[in-house]
Amino acid sequence: GEDVEQSLFLSVREGDSSVINCTYTDSSSTYLYWYKQEPGAGLQLLTYIFSNMDMKQDQRLTVLLNKKDKHLSLRIADTQTGDSAIYFCAEFPPGSARQLTFGSGTQLTVLP
Amino acid sequence: EPEVTQTPSHQVTQMGQEVILRCVPISNHLYFYWYRQILGQKVEFLVSFYNNEISEKSEIFDDQFSVERPDGSNFTLKIRSTKLEDSAMYFCASTGSYSNQPQHFGDGTRLSIL
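Above: the input entities. Below: the structure tokens describing the complete assembly.
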């Protein structure tokens, strides 16, 4: 089955690190993605990780993948007020379906 | 950086009317998608399109929905007879030569059915 779960809300202080967590159930997923949605805007691709990787770092973003526990996390270092948005994880299972399955999104609020 | 563009940004339509949502995917992309997001809910897959035909569609994508690539640049979603529950944000996405490449999304069209 395909179900992606995220906690709904996260608040952090400016300058702290944020960790947004995601669990997925399709162990055969090949790619996992993080998208950012600012108010009234579309889905901006932040980063993605292939399932044979444990970690991927891209500037302030670090993605960790634990395939055994089907757990994905996005860490944002030195969180800024401009990082306030909804963050979606999404999985792309293999096979004929070419559809992303999204989590419900985590609303990140960065407090001054 | 190339981007997916969608028009209009907001569409208000009377229930029962037809509506066409337009998208211009990234120019060298081959796979095209529509998703929708009802307010406060998850982003849901509607349909994927490749080589001028539908590749996959979800249960949401019933006979009221259709997609078309009328020329080399546009990709449209038509809803024949809109219902109140069609009110949502509709996102177009595209991806390159391989369908497992990251999908790039437009800013969406907010569809409001009255």
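Note for the figure: The interface with chain B takes residues 30-31, 33, 35, 41-45, 48, 88, 90, 92, 94, 96-105 of chain A (CB under 8 Å).
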